[in-house]
Amino acid sequence: MNKKFPENFLWGGAVAANQCEGAYDEDGKGLSIEDVTPKGIRGPITKEPTEENLKLKGIDFYHKYKEDIKLFSEMGFKVFRLSIAWTRIFPNGDEENPNELGLEFYDDIFDECHKYGIEPLVTISHYEMPLYLAKKYNGWSSRKTIDFFEKYVRTIFNRYKNKVKYWLTFNEINSIIHMPLLAGIMTPADKITKSEIYQAIHHQLVASALATKIGHEIIPNSKIGCMVIAVPIYPLTPDPEDVMTAFKADRENLFFTDVQVKGKYPFYIKRYFKENNIDLKIELGDEEILKNTVDFISFSYYMSACASSKSEENKKSGNMIMGVKNPYLKESEWGWQIDPKGLRYVLNTFYERYDKPLFIVENGLGAKDELIEDENGNKTVIDDYRIKYLNDHIIEIKEAIEDGVEVMGYTSWGCIDLVSASTAEMSKRYGFIYVDRNDDGSGTLSRYKKKSFYWYKELIETNGESL
Length: 467
Ligand code: BGP
Description:
It catalyses: Hydrolysis of terminal, non-reducing beta-D-glucosyl residues with release of beta-D-glucose. This protein is α/β, with parallel strands linked by helices. It has helices spanning 17-20, 61-75, 86-89, 100-115, 131-137, 144-160, 194-218, 240-262, 269-275, 286-290, 340-354, 384-403, 451-461; strands at residues 10-14, 79-83, 119-125, 166-170, 223-229, 233-235, 296-300, 305-307, 358-362, 372-373, 379-380, 407-413, 433-435, 447-449. It has a single domain (10-461), classed as Alpha-Beta Barrel (TIM Barrel), CATH 3.20.20.80. An eight-stranded parallel barrel has the order 1-2-3-4-5-7-9-12, surrounded by five helices. The longest helix has 25 residues, at 194-218. The radius of gyration is 21 Å and the shape is globular. The structure holds 6-O-phosphono-beta-D-galactopyranose. Residues 16, 19, 127, 171-172, 229, 300, 320, 362, 366, 413, 420-422, 428 line the site of 6-O-phosphono-beta-D-galactopyranose.
């Protein structure tokens, strides 16, 4: 059987502003939560940016974006996923007028993409919030934050309406359950109540639906998606107790897509709220706003997890979401369990549940790379392990497409090496392009093509036939 990717399949790569741009205080940018978390997204935060905070410097995409986008075009990217830093547009979040220099920066990036026929896919909020709003309003805990966010999205939709068609509201919106700091919530993680977290989630869901509504009004041909972290949760054993534990854990994640895709709170959440003493303040009009559903579902996929009703392990976070180790799977150097088939499973289960197009906007292997010199004296990385990981996952996408699932595209994570979100280090690399920068901040920032660069180029050129 000759399985094929659709002709208009959007191949590309993904990055996030705070992990690649650097220039944290240039051209009027304000501080974001990410600028003061030198140890990664779980915190703790520091009073002000510290020297060790590599995120402040990223990979200097702010000044090198032309060179980088040119390299992406060489690989044949059809799409480039990036995020706008809210604090470049509204440095504190509550200003009357936006920062023109910040707006111009993204204008230039989008122009550069279009120069090569690359479609930008923009995440409106990727793991960040103006530090000022976090301190003053406790981030998404406060309803006020919706107003500031609304102003921000109106500004960027109006400004980029002729340049950007594909948008995502919040990156991995469901990760807030485990990492409230990402929602700008300054209450220490051990003091925060479930009620407070779900109130913040409610505000974010309303904000996401509002952004979808406004986006559709300002840019009628736009495609606006939600973005979640997809981790299929398997029962560790066939014990029905394990099956139920896995089912419930899965639902905790699916809740977010349920609301964003179906436009209302799902039936099962009532019981969950009751059993967890969650009492939400839902204002008049919120339900109407939530009806503004997304056009497609996008997600990150790195791993699957197992759930067990017995194990204490279940409560600990073995990875980003939850789970116990699956004895059948190998894992990355950071303990992320590698499960290509899980991707086909996720694609099918999402499509079955929602009947909406899907977009894999993050996937990849974080690994330590060694820069070597090839026989011609060129510096490169022989990253066969990365090629294998990507190859195995993309084969499963092809399978899912053959199953009948509608998949819009694939953007591999960190297409150019960048700072890791969870460790804040450079040495966990995902890219097709090596960036000479080390954990201690040293390095020339020069870019080098890895072996996977050529592999991906061929894959795109042949629309997946080279797999
Ligand atoms: C996702 C985030 C990204 C990214 C990726 C890899 O959860 O959306 O920002 O960094 O994970 O994670 P890490 O950088 O921790 O390896």
